[in-house]
Structure formats: structure tokens, C-alpha cells
Write a structure and sequence with these properties.
- The chain is built from 27 helices and 29 strands.
- It is of the alpha/beta class and 718 residues long.
- The strands form five sheets. A seven-stranded mixed sheet has the order 3-4-2-1-5-6-7, with helices on both faces. A seven-stranded mixed sheet has the order 9-8-11-10-12-13-14, with helices on both faces. Strands 24, 25, 26, 27, 28 and 29 form a six-stranded antiparallel sheet that branches.
- Strand 1, helix 3 and strand 2 form a beta-alpha-beta unit.
- Helix 13 packs antiparallel against helix 15.
- About 1% of the residues have low confidence.
């Protein structure tokens, strides 16, 4: 579905999109007498726009209070931005005219293009993209899009009913979304008094995509944080380029990616004609780009508002001050879930709390100050000040279990001033079901205080805030190579001599070129050779069928382990041959591998593949036969160094087993990390040749690590 010219082009910047997003003049092709028509709605939504607006319809002199012009050529100037509100059949000619006239940007509402999956409709969309490429810098949004809304200039090129009646509140968050409807859910926060800076919906993205829109906002001073909601991108390279740009500008991008499962990915393809891609690859890319990832739509705008207000954390600890013991316990639960530290107050803060909180409350963090303190404004502020000034805390969390018409709004400016003076954010957890009760909008619109609708989202956001700060402090530098330089050439020769699916023996020979420890073995072509090999290697041994046609030997029943004498080897050999005869279609068989049994240890898997969007990808996780059941893995874009590999290992659930869980002997984590890094270099070196690598299991014991099985699938370049 992705077109190569689009994949290869650079990321658009602020200058490329200014005439589209911040136009001084606009025209609408397709304004009709029907007030509910998309063109008419757009004209109405531009009522607050301070620039020049032209309605185009040759059949009328005026429509909806605006003078009509016969054509684009009849206008007194070339408009910066043109909205095409025509049926699909009339769109292409209109776009060609816009390009010929030198228009700066075009918005296309019509649907029925690549999202249909029909070849002729995809070709129509390709022609629109070609017009943009061949123009003098004219950019196209859509087709199949809701449009744009610049809340700074009120340039609202969109057809949403009643948009012109939304209360105008300018906020610090820019909204970028592939789906117009999902993005507009955040725009409607204006109804409760919470603003935004821009709303930019990409739709099918024949030209401008979500990465380009976010790039524009990175450069825009009106936007301090960006929400990015999408199903898939046209170019992984552009997404990473966006991340590097945002890192340089120190502007946070909060991402919610939908279409992470097989069924939802297919739905995404039919929605915008965009491939959703691999969830693991996207998450690895998000980590490289330092995006802040949320797991549900409801958290997206809320998290972005926090990042727009919070600044950088001064400490990792969170202090909680609640009027309800139950609310305090909930915050402690969530802090534990998301691993947000809640240290106890220092001596200075403790003295203030002891003096203010009655004996039936709690001065420990989370503090239960009781209703008595809440009713005493001076005491409340004294407690808040003490906690905010404590160097152990980077933020103060205040659960709001109820709201009162006078008291709650009166506290907002006091808390805001405290936050500004200490340069630490205050988080309000709005637990009352009076969702828009007194004070809620004031908190959300305050420049220092952040409001959350759940304790879970509050502490999830705080955890993301601290992770983001940790990533900020990591230096951006080239990864030193771990593998020997001659590994590339040596492994390349072995790959050239192999088939599309390498046998275990061939695959281990290639990973060994990169310094990965592998188990020794002998290939036996009959039972007597197997017995002789076992005696030479020493018992106990393992037997495995060698066939380029059987990728998963355990499932095929062609592995036998822990064989301790010749009789056991003979019996196992016969069983393996019998099992191979039951495999359909009949596999090619090279013989049976005889291997010494590896020492017992923790089994890991190291996987690697070349992702269509993001290139080489490395994965490490719990391995062996439970790899798919446990689903305990971490991915990164390859190549990586040992330091990154070690950090990946530390994120695994199985990490505790590697460090001596319940009295077990710890293993050499540095050697495992080095092995992961070496496999990442293998896939990166041969990204054009290898499609997939699977080292499973890598057995990790106090004696070292050893790869006892491996699979390599070559890229089919025929």
C-alpha cells in the first residue's frame, strides 16, 4: 500500500506547511445551497477566521452570506489554502487546477480511495500524490480526512457541524491524528473550557502525513506538547526523523497507536489504506524516538496536558496528601504498580505535618490530613508547601474525593502559585463523579496544575515523566561495535552458499562468526554414526533431526534429550526417523545431529528480523518451549550496544532468574548482553540478505551462555 516515492521523501517542516496550516487566505471549492453540505459547513466554520475567505460556485452570486466566485481563476488572488468539498469524481481536476495556479495547500474531504483496497481507487490516490510531487511546493491533506483547525488563527478547514460554536480556548497541546474522529474527541474538551493549539487530521495521507503535521508543531511556539494518534505510518524513517527533531527541540510527543493486533491491523488497512505494521517494531521505534506512549485514548490528551505544564522533574519521589484514608491507599497501590517512589518526608516537612495533622490522621506518605486540615486554608497551604519544598519530592499529588462550590475553586490559584514558586507540578486526581464540578476546568486550564480523572492514569503519567527524563540524560552517541570486523565477510560467504531456510548447523555456524557461543555437534547419517558421535562427544547427549524444511523441531517431535548410553541413542534415533516420516509434506533430511547436553540454566530467546518500516529489529525474551506462552520480551531497533542490551534484559520478568532468584546462582549478565548485541549486529550487517534469526534457546548458567539451537531464514530476493 505504501508508495516508494513517499517512503523516500524528507520530513516536511514548518515552512513547507505554513500556507496550508496558517494561511492568510482560503478558498472553498464546492460550497452549495445545502447548509449541511461539507463545503457550506466549512464556510460557516471559518466565520472567526481573520483572513480572506472565497466561496467558489459558478451557479450562485452569494451563499450563506458570502460572495460566490465562478472558479479558482476568477479569484482576485491565489489563495494559500484551498478546501475541495467535491465528490471524488471531481477532485483530481480541481487539484490539478490548484497546482497550476500555485496554491500553497489543499484539503480533500472525499473518501473512496486507497481505503477501499480497489486497484483503480488506489491509482487515483497515487495520481493526487504525483500532482503534489510535481507542483511548486503545494501540499495535500487527505483524501478521506476531516480537515484542519488552527486554534491560534481560527483557520478551520473542516466540515464538523457546530465547530464554529465551540468556545474558543487556546491551549498548549497540538492534536495530530490519522483518524479525524479520534482526534476531534480531544478538540471537544473545549466544551468544558480546556483548549488546544491545533487540530491536524491526516486521513489517507497521500502527501502530508501525521509525521509531517507533528514536525510542523515541533517548530510552532504555540504548542508545548503534541498528541500523536495513528494506525500506521508511510515511512518508518520519517517517524524516527521526527523523533530526532523533537529531541533536539525538547518538545514531548505523546503517542497512542491503534491497530496493534491482527484483526485491528486489517481494520486499519480498510480505514485509511495504511499498513499498521508490527507492534514490537513500532514500540522499539517509539523508544528510539523518545516518544511517551499511552495505552488508551482517554489518557492521551490528559498526559499531553501534564507534559505541557510539568517541565523537568527535580526529584523522582511523589508526595501524596489526601483527605481520605481510602484515597491515600489507592495512590499507594498505583505508585507500586507503576514503580513511582513515595519516600517519607524529611525532617523539616515532618515537623510541619506533625503540627498540622491530628492524631487520627497520618503524617506518613501518603499523608491523610483529614477534613480538619482541608477546612483550614492556612494549615493546608503549610502542609503543601512543606512537601513541595522537600528535596525528595518532584511532585505533589492531591486526590480530590469531593468538590465544593466555593472552597474548591478558591484553592486553584493558591496551589498554582505554590507550584510556580517551587517549580514542581501539582497533580489533582479528580475522583468525584461530579465530572465538571466547581474547579475542574480551572485546574485543567491552569498552567502549573494538572488534572487526572483516575489514580491509575496519574501514576502512569508520572512514571512516563521520569522515564522520559532518564532518556533525556542518556547521551546520543554512536554504538561501539561488539563483533569482530571480519564477521561480516565470513558470514556473508556462508550465507551465499546456503538455501532460503538454513539448518540449525548452518545457522549456528553463522552466529558463531559474530562470537556467539554455540554448542558443538556431529552430523550422523545412520544410527551407528550417531552412537560413535555420542561416544566421542561424551554422554549425556541430545539428538535432533536436521532438515531445512522443519523450523520447529519440538513441535515435530524430532528431538530427544538427555540420552545416557548407546542403547538410548539407538532407540532415540529410530523414534526421530519415525516421527520425521509423519511430517507432511515429507521433509528433506540431511541426517541427525548429535550434541552434548548443555548445562541446565535459564533459557532465553534472541530473535531478529527485518521490519518493513523500521529495518533491522532485535528481540530478547524468555525462551525455550514457553517462548510464545510467556510472551516476556523486549525489542529494539538494531544494531545495539551491550549497554542497551543490558537495559533490555533488566526489563524482562525473567530477569530475576538471571540474578539468583531464591538462592540460585546468578549468571553473567554482561556476557548475555554482549551476545544480544552481537546478534543485533548480524541482522544489521545482513539486512538485505537475512529476513529472520531465531536463537532459541540460549542457555544461561553460571558456567556461561551457549546457543543450543538457531534458525536463519534468508530474504527471498528472487
Amino acid at each position: 500500500m505504501t508508495r516508494e516515492p513517499d517512503r523516500e521523501r524528507r520530513l516536511y517542516d514548518h515552512g513547507d506547511l505554513t500556507r496550508l496550516i496558517a494561511p492568510k487566505s482560503m478558498a472553498i471549492i464546492g460550497v452549495s445551497a445545502n447548509a449541511g453540505g461539507f463545503g457550506s459547513r466549512t464556510l460557516i466554520n471559518l466565520g472567526r477566521f481573520g483572513g480572506r475567505v472565497y466561496a467558489i460556485n459558478p451557479k450562485y452570486e452569494t451563499l450563506h452570506g458570502a460572495k460566490c466566485h465562478a472558479s479558482l481563476a476568477a479569484l482576485p488572488e491565489v489563495p494559500d489554502c484551498v478546501v475541495i468539498a467535491l465528490p471524488r469524481e471531481g477532485v483530481e481536476a480541481a487539484v490539478e487546477e490548484c497546482a497550476a495556479r500555485g496554491v500553497g495547500g489543499v484539503v480533500i474531504y472525499a473518501s473512496g480511495y486507497a481505503e477501499t483496497g480497489l486497484a483503480d481507487r488506489m491509482a487515483q490516490q497515487d495520481r493526487l500524490a504525483a500532482i503534489a510531487r510535481g507542483s511548486n511546493g503545494m501540499r495535500i491533506v487527505g483524501p478521506n480526512c476531516f480537515g484542519l483547525a488552527n486554534n491560534v488563527t481560527q483557520a478551520s478547514a473542516l466540515f464538523i457541524p457546530r465547530h464554529d460554536q465551540l468556545p474558543r480556548h487556546l491551549g498548549p497541546v497540538g492534536i495530530v491524528s490519522q483518524s479525524g474522529a479520534l482526534g476531534y474527541t480531544m478538540v471537544q474538551a473545549s466544551e468544558r473550557g480546556v483548549g488546544y493549539s491545533h487540530y491536524l487530521a491526516a486521513g489517507n495521507s497521500c502527501d502530508v502525513d501525521v509525521c509531517d503535521f507533528a514536525s510542523y508543531l515541533v517548530d510552532d511556539p504555540a504548542c508545548r506538547a503534541i498528541t500523536l494518534c495513528f494506525e500506521g505510518v508511510k515511512s518508518g524513517a520519517r517517524l524516527l526523523e521526527l523523533g530526532a527533531k523533537a529531541i533536539a527541540a525538547d518538545k514531548p510527543i505523546i503517542v497512542y497507536k491503534v491497530a496493534n493486533g491482527a484483526a485491528s491491523a486489517q481494520a486499519a488497512l480498510s480505514h485509511t489504506g495504511t499498513l499498521a505494521g508490527s507492534d514490537a517494531a513500532y514500540r522499539a521505534a517509539f523508544e528510539r524516538a523518545r516518544f511517551i506512549v499511552v495505552e488508551d485514548l482517554e489518557a492521551l490528551f490528559e498526559t499531553a496536558l501534564f507534559f505541557a505544564k510539568a517541565g523537568r522533574p527535580k526529584a523522582s519521589g511523589a508526595a501524596v496528601m489526601a483527605t481520605s484514608g481510602g484515597a491515600a491507599v489507592i495512590t499507594a497501590d498505583m505508585a507500586e504498580v507503576f514503580e513511582v517512589p513515595m519516600p517519607q518526608p524529611g525532617a523539616a516537612a515532618q515537623r510541619v505535618l506533625n503540627a498540622a495533622i491530628p492524631e487520627y490522621g497520618s503524617t506518613r506518605n501518603p499523608c491523610d490530613v483529614t477534613a480538619q486540615v482541608i477546612n483550614d486554608q492556612e494549615s493546608l497551604i503549610a502542609c503543601c508547601t512543606a512537601l513541595l519544598e522537600d528535596p525528595a519530592y518532584g511532585t505533589l499529588v492531591l486526590p480530590q474525593v469531593m468538590t465544593l462550590p466555593v472552597l474548591t475553586p478558591a484553592r486553584v490559584p493558591l496551589l498554582s502559585q505554590l507550584s510556580e514558586r517551587t517549580d514542581k507540578p501539582i497533580c489533582i486526581i479528580w475522583q468525584t463523579e461530579w465530572l465538571e464540578g466547581p474547579g475542574a476546568a480551572l485546574y485543567e486550564n491552569d498552567t502549573r496544575v494538572a488534572l487526572f480523572r483516575s489514580s491509575r492514569r496519574c501514576f502512569s503519567t508520572l512514571a512516563s515523566w521520569h522515564r522520559h527524563e532518564t532518556s533525556r540524560q542518556e547521551p546520543q552517541k554512536a554504538t561501539p561495535r561488539t563483533s569482530p570486523r571480519q564477521a561480516t565477510e565470513k558470514s556473508g560467504k556462508l550465507l551465499a552458499e546456503s538455501g532460503l531456510r538454513l539448518t540449525e548447523r548452518e545457522a549456528k555456524a553463522i552466529v558463531a562468526c559474530y562470537g556467539v557461543p554455540v554448542s558443538g555437534e556431529r552430523l550422523a547419517r545412520d544410527v551407528d554414526q550417531a552412537v560413535a558421535a555420542a561416544q566421542e562427544l561424551g554422554y549425556p547427549v541430545a539428538l535432533k533431526l536436521e532438515s531445512p524444511d522443519i523450523a520447529h523441531k519440538t513441535e515435530a517431535g524430532v528431538i530427544r534429550l538427555d540420552l545416557r548410553d548407546a542403547a538410548a541413542v539407538r532407540e532415540a534415533y529410530a523414534e526421530i526417523v519415525a516421527a520425521s516420516e509423519r511430517v507432511v509434506p515429507r521433509p528433506r533430511i540431511n541426517g541427525v545431529l548429535v550434541q552434548p547436553m548443555a548445562p541446565s540454566g535459564v533459557e532465553l530467546v534472541i530473535g531478529a528480523r527485518v521490519d518493513r518500516q523500521f529495518g533491522p529489529l532485535i528481540v530478547v525474551g524468555a525462551g525455550g518451549v514457553l517462548v510464545e506462552l510467556l510472551r516476556d520480551s523486549v525489542a529494539a531497533l538494531a544494531p545495539i550496544g551491550s549497554t542497551t542490551a543490558l537495559a533490555m534484559l533488566q526489563r524482562l520478568k525473567v530477569h530475576r532468574l538471571l540474578t539468583g532468584f531464591r538462592g540460585g546462582a546468578p549468571v553473567d549478565l554482561a556476557q548475555i548482553a554482549e551476545t544480544v548485541a552481537r546478534v543485533s549486529e548480524l541482522i544489521a550487517d545482513h539486512a538485505d540478505t537475512i529476513a529472520e534469526i531465531d536463537v532459541n534457546p540460549l542457555i544461561c548458567s553460571p558456567q556461561g551462555v551457549v546457543a543450543v539451537d538457531a534458525l536463519i531464514v534468508r530474504a527471498d530476493t528472487r
